[in-house]
Fold this protein.
Amino acid sequence: MSTATITPPAAVRGARSEGRIGLRANLRHISALVRRNALQIKQDPESMFDALLMPIIFTLLFVYVFGGAISGKGHQAAYVNYVVPGLMAMMGMNIAQAVGTGINDDFKKGVMDRFRTMPIARSSVLIAKIVVEIGRMLVATAILLGMGFALGMTVHTDVLHLLAAVVLSLVFGASLMWIFILLGLTMKTAQSVQGVAMLVLMPLQFGSSIFAPTTTMPGWLQSFTDVNPLSNLADASRALVNGGAVAHSVWMTLAWAIGITAVTAPLAVMRFRKKA
Amino acid sequence: MASTDTFTDIRGCPSGARPLHRPRRRVPREPPASSFPTRSGDFGTGARTRTGTGARLRNPAERARRQWAVSGWAGLSVVCRPGVGGMAQSRGMTSIKATSGGESAVRVRGLVKHYGSTKALDGVDLDVRQGTVLGVLGPNGAGKTTLVRVLSTLVQPDAGTAMVAGYDVLTQPRQLRRVIGLTGQYASVDEKLSGRENLYMIGRLLDLSRKDARRRAEEMLERFSLTEAAKRPAAQYSGGMRRRLDLAASMVGHPAVLYLDEPTTGLDPRTRNEVWREVRRMVGDGSTVLLTTQYMEEAEQLADELTVVDRGRVIAEGRVDELKARIGGRTLRIRPTDGHRPAEMAEALAASPVTGVGGATADVEDGTVTVPIVDDDQLTAVVRLLAERGFGIAEIGTSLPSLDEVFLAVTGQKASVPQDPRPAADNSDDLEGAAV
Ligand SMILES: Nc1ncnc2c1ncn2[C@@H]1O[C@H](COP(=O)(O)OP(=O)(O)O)[C@@H](O)[C@H]1O
Ligand SMILES: [Mg+2]
């Protein structure tokens, strides 16, 4: 019944790839969105409390509450060198978890609709979030190391190895973020995201070599801690800081990070795209 | 099928007839635009790389012609068709379709979206010609928001097709997003960011350079009277300010096609006028606008054509003036001074020889008399008659038909969802205390 015909301009007709976002444009979009997230933190400084206080509280707590018990009275200093590299792994995980609740919250706001109707890659919104969270992780790690040094931690290797340990936990933390983003996009409320995250985090954190060597644990638990990627990461950072065999645990950690990202990132982006 | 008969009278289509195109040109047909405007990256010079329309629209006369008030510029063809099943069948459906003046910037065919058993869209067809404003008028729950969300790639339809600026909503969403702007029914700005930062961010996401994004942000803040509040986080804005920021955000990129979902619902008259002004400006600049609304007045102010929807279906469509002619002109409301009963006044009016005001009715609850009128002469005649008979007038004013009245006229039925009427002050030009 309509007599109107629709003829797209020749320049934009055909070419299936037309409309794809080029790499440079993509980076520009991500940086605009990173700026958005950073401004949000500036507007709401309390959202940085976890990254600022968690490393301080955890270091004090573990070194003084458990340190004596685990390494023997008066041996807290030795325990610092054991636990701080492990806490680096844990810090990444706890901050990664905040991404899930953040994304879930974001989705309640209309601004997501705007992003999803704009000519930007949908992944850029997620990547920007991850970039900012990695920034938060860096802050938390710096504070953690500062605390560690203040409590007598010493680096037995060198600065490069220490940096490698930091980078490794950031890489692993970033891969975990995709899991939490997926959770955040799937669950209805931010509270339930947090609830599920805790259910997953607690056993992973405590059933690992982060806080104590696994040798005293029963066999069944040991087989769990051995495959637990957090043990691998904790072992890797300890070896990088204190010396020792590095290769196996580092490779295992990287393999986990790549595996987790490869599976969950596409799922998260897909979910993000579908979410209506 | 009473309504179909009425349509038949006006259109001259035999009841139940299938397409009868009758182009009736009132002004020379415009040359069809050769291509669609797209968002241009070159904001630096203020120039927009548009072909056809763009060039034409720099001519002020042409711009003026796009204002709603200039009616009758489009050729008109009439389509009468029998209703197709369900609701439409019982109501009868007639469409008045304008077909000249350019290509469809938005073209929707058989769009269906169901949420469980709710038929949010139940086979919607519509066209928005390039450079015009289509008003989508309908009550709450009619499916307006769902339609806008499908057209902006936020929701996938269950069936049907939708093309925007030549791009398919389903298969070319990325290209489509380059040419659209959306102001949703609910504000979609980042509440933690300031107005300025929101607009800057949008500019950057639309690939403006830092400098241009900053400039454009200032320009939009200025236009929407937000310069003073520019630094404050949007969370601290009033509802009206937020809506303005939202509109500004959707206009940053000079979209070729702009969707406005109930842009003035809940706004005070001043802000509403500001919004209208900016929408007209966008249209003057060559944008095509699809606007949803619950208010006939808004449709009349902004739209060239109107599509009336209810329960996911189009129940009437046509040029605004055509529909208006069908619905009737204005409604005159008179409040007699104390001591005069509305019933007496209505009776006096009904019994008088004043042409066309036989329909005077008294609203006892409200204490007013309602008189449908078609032109200003009748208004004068009514006032004169009341003066002659010694009736005191405490308050008198005219208003456009409400959505309810539109529905009644178009379908012979009440709207499916009760309406909350817009405050009287908003849509009546009060002649308070007119001398008698
Ligand atoms: N996401 C959704 N889930 C379930 N029902 C929905 C959803 N969106 C809209 N609906 C229903 O579809 C119908 C049309 O809604 P909507 O498009 O919002 O109408 P309008 O914007 O005209 O008020 C309503 O009955 C509404 O309840
Ligand atoms: Mg709506």
